[in-house]
Amino acid sequence: MESLRKDAYYTYSDYVKWDDGIRYELIDGVAYMMSPAPSWIHQEISGNLFGQLWQFLRGKPCKVYSAPFDVRLNAAQEDDTVVQPDIVVICDKSKLNDAGCAGAPDMLIEILSKSSARFDKHVKLQKYLKYGVREYWIIDPDSRTVQVYTLKDDNYIVSTYDETDEVNVTVLDGCVINLGEVFTL
After folding, report:
1. Can you tell me the distance from the alpha carbon of 160 to that of 75, in angstroms, rounded to the nearest whole number?
2. What residue ranges do the domains of the chain occupy?
3. Of 83, 102, 105, 166, which residue has the fewest beta carbons closer than 10 angstroms?
4. Class level of CATH domain 2-182
């Protein structure tokens, strides 16, 4: 990901005024231009996973959203970190507003691309940990694996799964994701 306007500090109030047709994320006040539209493989994986989550959550209080969807991780403080994960699960409706999510969602999912892999695995991982995202999934389409980071005692415990596995979603009691169906392309 390419960082833009490195010499400036931005907050969400600046972010919402940008109308240049480019999608950005903010991390600690620095704007990062997001890569172009994702590949068809990325889109299919996202759709397959979203479908399983949506089906499970149908009629339940938690809701699932797909990108583009603004998540303001520190909305109550500096409001200088805005991300757009591929999939977001929110169980606390008070965090929802017309602009997206204000605060840490219960679950975030990122599907790696060549341009975002390092950012998703390092920078975002640290931010999600810092702001208390309870479960973070990183999906690698190339290796057909999923790393699941589960928050416990202010640290993440990581587990790795492949396309032959079924994964229990820790933050959604009873939800099991069939990775074989996620990676069906």
Report:
1. 31
2. 2-182
3. 166
4. alpha beta
Number of H helices, E strands in the chain: 5, 15
Tokens of 17: 């005024």
For residue 99, list its beta bridge partners. Answer: none
- Spatial CA neighbour of 135 closest among 112, 105, 160, 161: 105
143 alpha carbon, distance to own chain's centre: 19
Total-model pTM:
0.93
Handedness of CA 38, 177, 118, 26 (dihedral sign): positive
User: Strand ranges (DSSP E) for 45-168?
Assistant: 63-66, 71-72, 82-83, 87-90, 96-97, 100-102, 107-111, 135-140, 145-152, 155-162, 166-168
User: Cα(64)–Cα(55) distance, rounded to whole angstroms?
Assistant: 10
Contacts of 51 (CB under 8 A, 6+ apart): none
Q: Would you state the pLDDT for residue 7? A: 74
- CB count, 10 Å around CB of 29? 16
Least confident range from 4-13, 53-62, 79-88: namely: 4-13
CA separation for the pair 157, 151 (Å, rounded) = 6
Judge whether 136 and 125 are in contact, CB under 8 Å.
yes
Helix, strand, coil shares of the chain, percent, nearest 5, are 25, 35, 45
Please name the residue that has the structure tokens 């909305």. 75
